[in-house]
Task: structure prediction
Amino acid sequence: MTIRRSYPFIILAATLFAFNLSLGISRSIQNNFWVDVLGLRPDQMGILITARETPGFLTVALAALTMRIAPSRLASACFVIMAIGYYAYGLATSFTTIVPGVVVASIGFHLWATLNGSFGLSVAREHDTGSVLGDLQAVGFVAGLLGLLGVLIGIGTIGYAAAFAISGLAMLVGAAAIASFPDHIVHRSPQRLVIRPRYALYYALNFFEGCRFELFQAFGIYLLVQEYRQPVQVIAVLFMIVGVGSAVLSPPVGRLIDRFGERATMTVGYLGMLGTFLGFALWHDALAATILYVAYNVLLLSEIGVNSYLKKIARPEDVRPSLAAGLTMMHVPALVVPILGGALWNAYGFAVPFLLGAGFITASLLATQFIPRPAAAPALEPAAPRPAP
Result:
């Protein structure tokens, strides 16, 4: 039996199919639900996104606290938690009642994020890791597209509450699937952070990325729905375009990074992102805003270079804990930036949060210039001598 047809692979593929199907449904309809049904104001959106992203800031602590729980049992619990959260979305009638569901779903999502890599690696062997992980990613991609297609065709008939219930049901299917995954093949590395001065630029890039990311998470789609009244079907189509575009363009962008280096590729990407944020702020047109949304998401691919840069400068044993530190740095702005953006929108209009985002992108652009050019990449620090046996 080949590894791709093995029982663990099939179980994990089914789990990821259910997971991405659920997200394809819930994430494409949530902004329209928040605006059209709940009538959330910009300041409330900022608070909601801060509440949603705060568990991401605590990811490493959550992972450390759950290390003793069997991986399949913990993963199944994550899916049940997400199912409860997404089902609760559809029951909400106000800002106050949507917050608990959002926080619950986020806890399950961020805890699963610490596990899914271990599950993926457990079904692969050293000689075919890339192809197996690629197959799993393809399964998730297809499931996400099916979820979006379902929204496009059926949301007008079944409504938001039923759609969120289906999203929750898909998570329960994922919970049942992953519960039967064999624990003995899953290796979970202890979660820890590495903070070293030599990785300061990597931390800074992640911090500024997080500032911009949290603003766009809060107000990117919200702008299209609140200001330009784009229906849920249009949002679903945009998600499809972005998903297909990202899948097609990711490999070429990776090759550009390999050929020209992180500094050059990310500089072009950040210049493009700067243009999109200025466009959101100053070009008040519905069609232009939708085009800018797609362009921004395509330009995001250049940020592959952030982790690629870390891989080049970090000691092998520092890579994973430094990635965890970078993820934590990305979530630090979630505690403040969305709330600040919502307050600015309420006080001065929607252009101001995007101008603030343009400032964060400028900071990223400037920080990128400190990445050495390919020919001048820094050598690794010599490892400390090991004590004699």
